[in-house]
Amino acid sequence: MKGRLIVVMVLVLAVALFTAACGETTTTTTAAGTTDTTAAGTTETTAGTAESVKIASLYPVTGDLAKLGEENVQGLKLAIEEINAAGGIKSMGGAMLELVEADSQGKPDVAISEVERLVQQEEVSAIIGTYQSSVAIPSTQAAEKLKTPFIVSMAVADTITERDFMYTFRICPKAAWYAKDQVELLKDLKDLIGLDVKRVALLHEDTDFGESTSAGQKKYLEEAGMEMVVEVAYPAAKADLTTEVSKIKAANPDVVLTVTYLNDSILIAQAREKLGMKQLFFDAAGGTIDPEFVARLAEAAEGILTEIEYTKYAAGAEVLNDKFFAAYGRDITGNGAYAYQAGYLIADALERAGSADREAVRQALAATKMPSGPTMVLPTAVLEFGPDGQNLSAPLFVVQIQDGELIPVWPAEYAAAEIRIPE
After folding, report:
1. Nearest CA among 193, 156, 192 for reference residue 308
2. 376 touches 341 (CB < 8 A)
3. How far apart are CA 360 and CA 229, in angstroms?
4. Which strands form 52-59's sheet, in the order they lie side by side?
5. What would the pLDDT profile of 142-187 be if each residue is shown by its tens digit?
6. Contacts 24+ apart (CB under 8 A), 187-192
7. What is the pLDDT of residues 29-83, one digit of tens each?
């Protein structure tokens, strides 16, 4: 009897050792209804079992640029709500997108710290930001070191996608393209309104946004045979810009090209009116596209030209604009629209990657080819990136403030009105 007991105990021990060596398994049913067998005790999330995927937003939601930062976040949130309502990321078992919001405060050093926190503590799969070029440049560099995909929805300095980075993807136009289209319109003004532009003044804020855009302006003006008669740079935080605008007036240009944020764009328009200047002022999609610009200036805003990345007057755009208006009580601008697109871009990449792994997401983003449709709302046939991470086709519209509205006036196929000459 004693010998039989010893034999049984040995057999039991052998079975236990065999089970431990092979790995005990448990079987669960995923949200998609499939059976998934995983090693007991593991924490790895496999395709088909993920409950959520963390992505982050990094915009200035406090400080001077808080309203613009908020519009970016709202556009992104609208997309995420729609994606989750439609079932989330199907290839990951219906994983929901979880947005982790971060505030850059408009400060590069704060943004770097936030990138590190988002990656190392929150363990996000990607970051979307930043609105300011001066914040995007160091933020994307920090993300590159941490091998984390960074989608630049809005920030235009050329250098952002000119550093051979592998993890930076920008969907908005870059500064040189804004400058190029500004000069293209100047060339067309003779046929459009009989204005033969020969002398141009540059007036811009002095951070990466203003400097990179003005560099492009000078390049394309020279190519077009137009003279730059004066260039005036200023800190965007200045409380008064009458002196700077007076220098522009003294140069007597045909047209003034500006690069602004909201507060300085308002100060320039006020000084323009005070000094009685009748020249066309043409901004590079800066503070002049903010609804507050028109709201605060009223008549003083009339006639100013600016560029926008998105217009509700483009074919199909009214659908997105209506959804944004219903959610937030105002029309969408390029900031909100490109952030909205960034939400669908990361969802598309996750769907194809089938994983929240940052390297897998990076590879999927690099291979992006999203055709125009309900989830690709940009005014172009396809969204895809070049080797540098820049969206290959990000067209711009020129609008003029007419009767308090941003009315498209160029290119011709999108024009809803003719350009008005200041009286």
Report:
1. 156
2. yes
3. 51
4. 96-103, 52-59, 126-130, 150-154, 168-170
5. 999 999 999 999 999 999 999 999 999 999 999 999 999 999 999 9
6. 187/224, 188/410, 189/255, 189/280, 189/419, 192/410, 192/418, 192/419
7. 333 333 333 322 223 333 334 689 999 999 999 998 898 899 999 999 999 999 9
